[in-house]
Design goal:
This protein has about 240 residues and is of the alpha/beta class. The protein is about 40% helix and about 15% strand. The longest helix is centred in the middle third of the chain and has 29 residues, at about 105-130.
């Protein structure tokens, strides 16, 4: 029996990779889904995939770092579905390099997508969920929030910040029935890794669909139960003491 019938989920970066896999997983449990991303062509392909499976889907082209576009995306979701039960902050960016060679532009781009975006989306979701009496927010973090790699300052800093935002959201949401948890993926085979010859992209991998099972588990918990933090990674991946 599907566990999310009548629920509505909004997923940022829902057009491919982890976001798409999570969206399909939630839809398979009966949720209506709103997919938000910048790439309209990828969104259309994902929408067609959802429609082919008889899933109820809305797509919105928007940049999560733009306040007005975020507000519009949430407004369109409410206009279409009338409510919002689950927000998945998944949209992300990666850039890096040696600290002494890192540009301010690279730093600001990653922080904007990975941290400012989730803040803007969380703020909109809070305003909706407080009025309707509850909801759940799932932030897609990274094991880099706890075990960093060299040359990853913007990404690692943003994911550390997202974990902090998760805790504040959970704390402030508690009186209103709003829960918030952070899912930290390890190595996941997404589009940007395919065909890559980078050393880290040759490490043990899991699929986006395998990771999405954890997100679906978080989303389907009873409303009074929260998975505050979860780390999911391939068994063979270096993690403890990595560097």
């Amino acid at each position: 029996m599907p566990q999310l019938i009548g629920k509505v989920a909004l997923i940022t970066g829902g057009n491919k990779g982890i976001g798409k896999a999570v969206a399909l997983g939630l839809a398979a449990e009966g949720a209506s889904v709103a997919l938000v991303a910048r790439n309209e062509k990828d969104l259309e392909r994902t929408r067609a995939d959802c429609v082919a499976r008889c899933f109820n889907v809305l797509t919105v082209t928007a940049d999560v770092t733009d306040e007005r576009q975020v507000q519009t995306a949430f407004a369109k979701t409410i206009e279409r579905f009338g409510r919002l039960d689950i927000l998945v902050n998944n949209a992300g960016a990666f850039d890096g390099g040696p600290l002494d060679e890192l540009s301010l532009e690279a730093w600001e781009k990653v922080l904007a997508v990975n941290l400012t975006g989730p803040f803007l989306c969380t703020r909109e979701a809070f305003r909706i969920m407080k009025k309707q009496g509850g909801g759940r927010i799932i932030n897609i973090g990274s094991i880099s929030a706890q075990r960093v790699r060299p040359h990853s300052a913007p990404y690692s800093a943003s994911k550390h910040g997202l974990w902090g935002l998760t805790q504040v959201t959970a704390l402030e949401g508690r009186p209103f029935g709003i829960s918030c948890g952070c899912l930290h993926p390890g190595n996941t085979m997404v589009e940007r890794r395919q065909g890559s010859d980078k050393t880290e992209d040759q490490e043990p991998m899991m699929t986006a669909e395998e990771l999405a099972q954890a997100a679906v588990c978080m989303a389907t918990l009873p409303a009074h139960v929260n998975m505050l933090e979860a780390i999911v990674l391939p068994v063979g991946q270096l993690y403890v003491g990595r560097g």
